[in-house]
């Protein structure tokens, strides 16, 4: 059961995450083709979309449902609950997907800016490399936190069941919130509280990476796609 009383409460959680990501983006990404701006900005598109979905559903639940039913062209008013579940699942999955893929792209660009060695393909290994290059303490703990959204996303692809690496379970506390992933069992930590907590913690690590001596002095970390579009 969701710990949030209303969709508006969940939307407020996502808004705080949106503002946090925007703050890090604006502090470290000063150029429109810089990966530090491009990739973080892309995540805010997902947080913005999730906020809109949650606030729309809050409005529907508090008097706007007949208008939403009509606007969506639903044959039966009762179908709105099915549509709402679909919208929520899509919003969660899009945010988790976009966050992981954009952080993966950012880490890859940062590594290529300072290290000539080939970058790892797996997200987990990529996190290990970027944290080691940044010289952050508690490397293993940071990698685990960064991997939590990926575990949540993977479970959504498996209809809510966790498939652990080599059958392993994962359990950890992130900022006072428990995350438990039991191999072969349904994942219970998929509420907006869990998603925003995991991504907030990830952003704190991203901020420390960008502020590290290894990366903070780099004037430009070009995003390949944005740089190519700017030339054309």
What does this protein structure show overall?
The protein has one domain (7-217). The chain is 66% helix and 4% strand. The protein has helices spanning 7-28, 35-72, 80-114, 123-134, 139-157, 192-211, 224-231; strands spanning 170-174, 177-181. A two-stranded antiparallel ribbon has the order 1-2. A hairpin with a 2-residue loop joins β1 and β2 (177-181). α3 packs antiparallel against α5 (139-157) and α4 (123-134) runs antiparallel to α5. The relative contact order is 0.15.
What labels describe this entry?
232 residues; mainly alpha; two-stranded antiparallel sheet; 7 helices; globular
Strand-helix topology:
Elements: H1 7-28, H2 35-72, H3 80-114, H4 123-134, H5 139-157, E1 170-174, E2 177-181, H6 192-211, H7 224-231
Antiparallel strand pairs: 1-2
Helix pairs in contact: 1-2, 1-6, 2-3, 3-4, 3-5, 3-6, 4-5, 5-6
Overall morphology: globular
Structural class: mainly alpha
Helix content: 55-70%
From N to C, what is the helix and strand string?
A: HHHHHEEHH
How would you write the strand order of the largest sheet?
1-2
Q: Could you give the count of β-strands?
A: 2
User: Quick check: average pLDDT?
Assistant: 93
A few lines on this structure:
With 232 residues, the protein is mainly α. It has helices at 7-28, 35-72, 80-114, 123-134, 139-157, 192-211, 224-231, and strands at residues 170-174, 177-181.
